[in-house]
Amino acid sequence: MNKDLLDKISDFKNLLDNDSRVLALNEAEKAMEMDEEVMSLAYQKDLAETAYSDALRHHGEQSREGKATRKKLFEAKSKLDKHPLVRTYLEAYRGVRILYEEINEVLFAPFTEHFCEDRK
Q: What is the pTM of this model?
């Protein structure tokens, strides 16, 4: 690759790293990771997820055990998702996801469209 292209890629990466949406996401993630309540809720969700997976494997989805553990998983995930720090993170994540989708569209859509046309 030529130096000019590498410099432009480096500049683009720096712009992304310093974008307010990316910075907000990183800050929200750190806040979640430092919060004991969020970590406890995440752990409870993980335990419920494991219990549900085990129930599916041993009893099936429509079994009493499967339904009970699915409900507990739903409740644990809901508690986690409703925590204010998680809500902040998810909102920040949404902004970064949209940014990345837009970048993907601008950079790669021309290639995808031509590739699909050739396959027809």
A: 0.79
DSSP letter (8 states) at residue 2: -
Amino acid at 75: E
| Residues contacting residue 56 through CB under 8 Å, at least 6 positions apart | 66
**Under a CB-based contact definition with an 8 Å cutoff, are residues 86 and 92 in contact?**
no
Q: Is 48 exposed, middle or buried (0-12, 13-18, 19+ CB in 10 A)?
A: buried
With 0-12 / 13-18 / 19 or more C-beta atoms within 10 angstroms meaning exposed / middle / buried, residue 80 is buried
Token reading at 37 = 């309540």
| pLDDT tens digits in sequence order for the chain, 120 residues long | 699 999 999 999 999 999 999 999 999 999 999 999 999 999 999 999 999 999 999 999 899 999 999 999 999 999 999 999 999 999 999 999 999 999 999 988 877 765 555 555
What does the DSSP 8-state code read for residue 18?
Answer: T
